[in-house]
Amino acid sequence: MSDSSTTREPVAPTGGGGLAGVPGSGGDGSGDGSGRVRVRLDLAYDGTEFSGWARQPNRRTVCGVLEDTLSTVLREDVVLTVAGRTDAGVHAAGQVAHVDLPEAIDVAGLPKRLARALPADVRVFSARVVPAAFDARFAALRRHYEYRVTDAPFGAHPLRRLDTLAWPRQLDVAAMNAASGLMLGERDFCAYCRRREGATTIRELQRLEWVREGDLLTAFVSADAFCHSMVRSLVGALLAVGEGRKPVEWPASLLSLHSRSSEVTVAPPHGLSLVRVDYPADEDLAARAEITRNVRVATAG
User: Fold this and answer.
1) Is 159's pLDDT higher than 60?
2) Which residues carry out catalysis?
3) What angle (nearest 5°) sits at the alpha carbon of residue 294, between those of residues 290 and 295?
4) Which of 26, 55, 78, 182 could form a cystine bridge with 252, CB 3.0-4.6 A?
5) Is 147 annotated as a binding residue?
6) Domains of the chain in sequence order
């Protein structure tokens, strides 16, 4: 994906069957005289049959399907920038992406045109022109995820089996929430992340709360950003607390580690959904993107 903003040139298909951006490509936004506008796409997908968001050779991915379909419908090369690159099997009800398109395109009509071309497991709900400073990834204030678990003795309801984890033992929500509260704030979550070269694992966890409705438990998880597998790792640790295998203090104690913890089990992907992404007011978009691009450094103490 390309986050840069100069005039796009045609590119060749990648191994995944789609189109990759030329470094430094991607029109420079709405109303700037370039003949192109920046467009925000709000979308959702059932992640069951996708190998995640990001393009991979010979794999069906959300990005690949969307970019290929947009390129066909619009008859030009399209490269998307996304708010959150979800893993294989993870769903999204409120994903956000941006793309730079010619001014002449009927942006408001895109969802209807795409509905005729996209597969049933991905949909674009809305498309609208936004300021050139809008960046789906770097301008985001926070991401909101939900993880669904059921501890019903019969397992997950047949109609929810693809988005709800069936847990075989009763879970103590009070203990899980007590453990969750100890994790909040800006911390180094390297114990809960699969480290990527050059990426920081410092994140501000703003909400981590479990709510029970009958046999269904939903974890509400919000942060400025998440590192790879962070949400599912947090859920896995809290499930261990909920069934009594680990004490309440255990998940927070791992934050003192300087590498990924082998004790943490990553929860399965299908219970997780990206439900919303928050952005600042238009006049604050550029400043927010600049702040996000700065690498966090852990403060002493």
Assistant:
1) yes
2) 87
3) 160
4) 182
5) no
6) 36-129 (3.30.70.580), 142-280 (3.30.70.660)
